[in-house]
Design goal:
Elements (H helix, E strand, L loop, with lengths): L1 E6 L5 E10 L12 E6 L12 E8 L4 E8 L11 E3 L27 E6 L5 E6 L4 E7 L6 E8 L3 E7 L5 E6 L2 H8 L12 E8 L27 E8 L8 E6 L6 E5 L6 E3 L7
Antiparallel strand pairs: 1-2, 2-3, 4-5, 5-6, 7-8, 8-9, 9-10, 11-12, 12-13, 13-14, 15-16, 16-17
Length: 282
């Protein structure tokens, strides 16, 4: 799941869509592939795009994982045939993509269970989720060389999955707080609700003082401070929390800064969870 913004000549957002993937056969084959959808944040429905754009996505096919490039054009059928398919022996269970200019480079090695990856809007910071270590690794990026320099690590109260920078370059992190329950969901054909549902936290801007606090995230029903130590560089705040009875197996979260709306997808959930800052009639 990601935003697809349509901009005017002055680079102002005129319309915002959400690109979604849907895998009806997920219960039989535990890899995300299948159908692609476009959701309009303006109308709350599926809508065609405004002008052509390129889309790159990970395809976990049974034979091997590939990266597919599509061209989305409203003048044509909603999805045109694949423009090209990229494959490599280095594509071992890829999960996430971010824009990059160079042809090929090993930029950051030794990350345990590297999962989600996101590049900040200014292109100067890269965030990589380490699911097994419950950390998000931050790197400084040199745009002229694409070299990465380790910056800092932030511990989160779950196994982080996908990470996304919002309009203000705040990092949104979705994840799984109780991995055994998550594995139990993966291993059953009925896919029941996960006993320990998703947290969704956002490492916000760096703190100016750099002092380490013992208590934080005070508004959450279960504070992240009870699970993970406070960061000396970032403020961590829980945005959404559930025991799984509402929504489980969270993978990606998005916040629309224009409207305050929050969007969440789950690995084994039916549909997209949408939360609005004000009550409204649906």
């Amino acid at each position: 799941m990601l935003f697809w913004d349509h901009l005017d000549e002055e680079d102002h957002v005129t319309n915002r869509f959400i690109l979604l993937s849907c895998d009806p056969g997920r219960r039989e084959w535990n890899h995300p592939f299948g159908q692609l959808w476009i959701y309009s944040t303006e109308t709350g429905s599926l809508s065609p795009p405004a002008r052509p754009s390129n889309l790159f996505l990970v395809n976990h096919a049974r034979e091997n994982s590939t990266i597919e490039q599509f061209v989305l054009d409203p003048a044509q059928p909603l999805w045109r045939p694949t423009f090209r398919t990229l494959t490599s022996s280095y594509f071992v269970a890829p999960n996430s993509l971010t824009r990059w200019l160079i042809e090929h480079k090993f930029a950051a090695l030794g990350i345990a269970f590297a999962n989600g990856v996101a590049l900040s809007r200014d292109g100067l910071r890269l965030a990589v989720a380490s699911s097994s270590m419950a950390k998000v690794h931050f790197y400084k990026r040199d745009p002229s060389t694409d070299d990465l320099t380790p910056d800092r690590d932030v511990i989160v109260p779950f196994g982080p999955d996908n990470v996304m920078y919002d309009d203000d370059d705040t990092l949104i992190v979705a994840g799984h707080p109780h991995f055994p329950s998550f594995v139990a969901v993966v291993g059953t054909s009925l896919v029941p609700k996960c006993r320990a549902g998703p947290f969704l936290s956002a490492p916000l801007q760096r703190t100016r003082t750099g002092s380490r606090r013992t208590g934080y995230d005070s508004r959450a029903p279960l504070s992240a401070s009870a699970i993970a130590p406070a960061s000396s560089t970032d403020e961590v705040e829980t945005i959404f929390q559930s025991d799984g009875s509402v929504y489980g197996t969270a993978t990606t979260g998005l916040i629309d800064s224009r409207t305050g709306a929050f969007y969440l997808t789950g690995l084994y959930e039916d549909g997209v969870l949408v939360c609005y800052p004000e009550p409204r009639s649906i």
